[in-house]
């Protein structure tokens, strides 16, 4: 691994042991259980919108109030969900994910000394 | 986003006062160069040059990301597309924004935790260094090059229009000037200087757009429905309020629209110049905060594009916009001129100019870092190189890239910005994103998978574009050519779609899978290190202590 710029000679951490530990597998499970369904959800919601725009323009053109039609509301809802998912994820990451991740990182640093 | 400033500008159609425009441009350049000079005082190490010492806060970096992302295609292109094509232009805004969730949830933090300077750092982490770095560097250079060409071509047209320069030689001089200023930013300021230019530009862009949006709303009694009515009256048809005015012509154009939507939503998290920005903050938490800020700013901006686009449609009118020298891209400057005359036009023109300079500087530093760090430092010199000489190579690369961009920009002057930007997004989504995601989340992933995916995605995307109607064969309703090749007799297209994403993105993912399952390579130790570091932040590159 002599050409490996990211290898540090002083790094003696047994990453495989950390990776196999119960705390880490729980952290990974928690992370994936949160972000994967959310990703699937917003992509499905986005492509539903794209499909409606492409194949149901009549539905999208239906007027609700004044010149405000379904398409505009649907489009603005994409903004709303994007902002909502951002807030939801950042709150979760700050409160749930970070403490668990920091605890493992602190343990690694301590063991390395 | 369907046309760029035409190369041949009729001399009589310039708007506003060139003297005012030149003065405002000059003030912007002088002020930013001053700030870049100040920022450069603390550039010492490679981490300073490439990553701004990793000392920016999440909020600063979020603003800079917005500055990087809201390029001429967004500011001039989307507003123009809404003004002319109505609702279909708004679809771009939505795709460009939703795309940020991919970066937020799956990429930004994990990338910050595992890399140092470039995208290739992460991709080659647990794979064989040399082949993967070369592939990642090639892909970075290709994506950045097409993005760069689009900005340079836009710069020539935009500045020429606003300064009243109609001769080709004069426009080429403008492109050379833009190239020289942008290389100056990068050489003097490195990532720190570039970041500050982006922060200033994003702030100006948001303030300028906000003022115009409020102004437009004020003209219509702060009732958005009345703005829409104005656009309907001006265009003479309700079609501007409904989707598929532009893309509804046939099943093929609808599929093309879906292909574009896919490339937009998956391209962002694979753009090397966006990814590199995550290294300018000290921790993955700040990277998260960066994306959070970027989403608020970019989202806010795209909501304003709705008001500005329909406002331009209503107040200027699509006929006037299309008849102007910049065609569809002139909507925003024309709206400014319509609202408040010469002075606001000068401000908005300066914002557009700042946009191009900042984005071009960001692309140049990304491309030069990729060459110096990945190709020269790690592959040619095998990591046996001092940080000083690597930075020296990066500076030389920046000059070379600047020259290439100037020559390419002169060559591409008058070409379609959207074509080049959509190509960059499609290549990023096809060649980069599959490898980034596989490498972060798929245990089995290996070198062969990465190479198949990157080269396969890259080649598929580029080949499909070469044989698409955008390069040859596309015609306007009046029979003239709407393609890059203006001779209607030359038509070698066989791929029906303008955007290759619908085919090339799945191909990139599929080839990554095929390459992986046909190779036995697996480095359990590096995989464990990468996964632990990416999630916990242990061992991540630290902020550089200056002073």
What does this structure look like?
The complex is a heterodimer of chains A (113) and B (547). With 113 residues, chain A is mainly alpha-helical. Chain A has one domain (21-112). Chain A is built from 4 helices and 2 strands; from the N terminus they run αααββα. The longest helix of chain A has 43 residues, at 70-112. Chain B is mainly alpha-helical. Chain B has one domain: Sodium/glucose cotransporter (Up-down Bundle), CATH 1.20.1730.10. Helix content of chain B is 72%, strand content 0%. The radius of gyration of chain B is 22 Å and the shape is globular. Classes of the chains: A mainly alpha (113), B mainly alpha (547). Chains A and B meet through helix 1, helix 2, helix 3, strand 2 and helix 4 of A and helix 5, helix 9, helix 10, helix 12 and helix 20 of B.
List keywords for this structure.
heterodimer, A: 113 residues, mainly alpha, 2 strands, elongated, B: 547 residues, Sodium/glucose cotransporter, 20 helices, 0% strand
Q: Largest beta sheet of chain B, briefly?
A: none
Supply the number of helical segments of chain B. Answer: 20
CATH class of chain B: Mainly Alpha
Helices and strands of chain B, in order, run as HHHHHHHHHHHHHHHHHHHH
Mean pLDDT of chain A: 88
Shape of chain A: elongated
């Amino acid at each position: 691994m002599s050409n490996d710029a990211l290898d540090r000679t002083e790094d003696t951490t047994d990453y495989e042991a950390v990776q196999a530990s119960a705390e880490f597998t729980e952290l990974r499970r928690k992370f994936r259980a949160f972000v994967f369904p959310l990703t699937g959800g917003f992509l499905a919601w986005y492509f539903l919108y794209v499909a409606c725009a492409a194949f149901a323009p009549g539905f999208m053109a239906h007027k609700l109030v004044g010149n405000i039609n379904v398409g505009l509301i649907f489009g603005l809802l994409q903004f709303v969900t994007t902002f909502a998912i951002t807030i939801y994820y950042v709150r979760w990451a700050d409160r749930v994910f970070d403490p668990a991740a920091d605890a493992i990182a602190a343990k690694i640093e301590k063991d390395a000394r | 986003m369907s046309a760029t400033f035409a190369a041949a500008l009729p001399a009589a159609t310039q708007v506003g006062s060139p003297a005012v425009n030149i003065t405002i441009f000059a003030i912007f350049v002088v002020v930013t160069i001053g700030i870049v000079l100040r920022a450069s005082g603390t550039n010492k190490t490679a981490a300073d040059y490439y990553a701004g010492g990793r000392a920016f806060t999440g909020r600063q970096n979020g603003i800079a990301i917005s500055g990087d992302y809201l390029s001429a295609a967004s500011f001039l292109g989307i507003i123009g597309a809404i003004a002319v094509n109505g609702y279909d232009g708004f679809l771009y805004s939505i795709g460009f924004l939703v795309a940020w969730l991919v970066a937020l949830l799956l990429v930004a933090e994990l990338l910050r935790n595992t890399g140092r300077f470039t995208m290739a750092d992460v991709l080659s982490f647990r794979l064989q260094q040399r082949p993967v770095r070369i592939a990642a560097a090639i892909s970075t250079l290709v994506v950045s090059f097409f993005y760069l060409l689009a900005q340079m071509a836009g710069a020539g047209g935009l500045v020429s229009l606003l300064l009243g320069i109609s001769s080709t030689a004069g426009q080429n001089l403008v492109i050379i000037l833009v190239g020289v200023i942008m290389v100056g930013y990068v050489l003097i300021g490195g990532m720190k200087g570039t970041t500050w230019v982006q922060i200033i530009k994003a702030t100006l862009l948001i303030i300028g757009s906000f003022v115009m949006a409020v102004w437009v709303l004020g003209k219509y009694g702060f009732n958005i429905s009345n703005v829409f009515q104005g656009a309907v009256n001006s265009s003479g048809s309700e079609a501007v309020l409904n989707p598929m005015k532009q893309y509804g012509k046939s099943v093929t154009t609808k599929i093309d629209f879906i292909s574009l939507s896919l490339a937009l939503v998956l391209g962002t998290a694979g753009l090397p110049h966006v990814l590199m920005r995550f290294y300018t903050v000290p921790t993955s938490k700040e990277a998260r905060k960066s994306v959070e800020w970027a989403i608020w700013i970019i989202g806010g901006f795209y909501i304003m594009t709705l008001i500005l686009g329909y406002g331009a449609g209503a107040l200027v009118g699509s006929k006037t916009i299309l008849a102007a020298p910049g065609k569809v891209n002139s909507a925003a400057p024309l709206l400014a001129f319509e609202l408040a005359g010469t002075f606001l036009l000068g401000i908005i023109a300066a914002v557009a100019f700042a946009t191009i300079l900042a984005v071009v500087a960001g692309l140049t530093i990304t491309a030069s870092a990729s060459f110096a760090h990945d190709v020269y430092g790690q592959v040619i010199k095998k990591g046996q190189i001092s940080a000083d000489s690597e930075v020296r190579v990066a500076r030389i690369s920046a000059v070379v890239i600047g020259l290439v961009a100037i020559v390419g920009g002169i060559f591409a002057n008058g070409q379609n910005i959207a074509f080049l930007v959509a190509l960059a997004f499609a290549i990023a989504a096809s060649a980069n994103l599959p490898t980034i995601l596989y490498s972060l989340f798929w245990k089995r992933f290996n070198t062969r998978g990465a190479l198949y995916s990157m080269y396969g995605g890259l080649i598929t995307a580029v080949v499909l574009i070469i044989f698409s109607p955008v390069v040859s064969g596309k015609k306007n309703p009046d029979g003239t050519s709407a393609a890059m090749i203006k001779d209607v007799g030359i038509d070698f297209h066989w791929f029906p779609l303008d955007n290759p994403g619908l085919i090339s993105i799945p191909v990139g993912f599929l080839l990554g899978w095929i390459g992986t399952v046909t190779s036995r390579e697996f480095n359990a130790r590096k995989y464990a290190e990468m996964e632990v570091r990416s999630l916990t932040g242990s061992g991540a590159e630290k902020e550089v202590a200056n002073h």
